[in-house]
Amino acid sequence: MKLYEYAAKEIFSGAGIPVPRGNIVTSADEAGETAKKMGAVVIKAQVMAGGRGKAGGIAKSSNPEEASRNAQRILGMSIKGLPVRKLLVEEYKKPQIEMYIGITIDRKSRCPIIMASSEGGIDIEETAREKPQKIVRMHVNPLTGIHSYQARTLAYSLDKKNASAIADVITKLYRVFTEYDCTLVEINPLALTTDGIFALDAKMVIDDNALFRQDAKEEETGSLEELAKKRGMSYVGLDGDIGCIVNGAGLAMATLDMIAFYGGHAANFMDVRAGADAEQVKTALGIVSSNRNLKAIIINIFGGITRCDEVARGVVEMIPEIKVPIVIRLTGTNESEGRIMLGKHGITMASSTEEAARKVVELGHTDK
Q: Which one of 6, 96, 176, 315 has the fewest CB atoms closer than 10 angstroms to its CB?
């Protein structure tokens, strides 16, 4: 479960990690009133999407009037398809140095890994790609937890003069990571200002399997991921133009790889999971086809628990609403029945993942 920035900062603050004073608002007037009390502020859209700054969803405001204008503009925005309904208005802290600190799980080593970089304020993926030497990584034994020397070593790599304060933040951030059963905690940037060290942004993702013991309520976001999750499916949006519907994470990875092999670019990862019925398939097609950039859809189903005829029925019922070509590969339980149903509607069929990927790239005219 992802937390909004303001919710993550509340947890950070409770753990002793310095964050700017802030207030959640839902109107331009409230933003103006908050700015009267704080002076210069930053208006930040609260949506479950990255790239808020590039989309215009973050704005510095020097006075209450400017804060109201910026709040009015941002509240009318939609960022990556998500409407902005609430804003975080927080006091402006001018960064002198911007750093990055993140903690996640390294599956290969089966333990937490802390990543730190002196190049904060930008996507860590960009730093890893352009300047990998700027990222320091350190594994933590989950049984013993983080040692003080580890925190000091990481802090020293970021800023020698303020290593003590940074080490304190790292130690407290690791405590948040473990106590809240997180799969990710991130501060980007952790900034040195004239008032000290502050977490100017915050990201937290709690393991869904641990929600039963966490006092964290999932808020409605209206996202496609949330809609899919409610129907027992998994959806991850990507930046391509070929929709991908499969049953099973392994098959999804293989399908995405094959699409890329033939020069295509997937628009998403949609796993309807084992046992999907016609209604789930219809929901999956509705979610995937809502992408305006879509040029084609590939459906790759291995019918074990999932019945191929159920999948076919869901596809047939959605055909009138789908405006792009569909390529389907069905194999397994009730495969013949499913193929007969789809054949009556002229849908392109494939006998293998490779063939389906090649055909969907050709039909979608995806640039190679």
A: 96
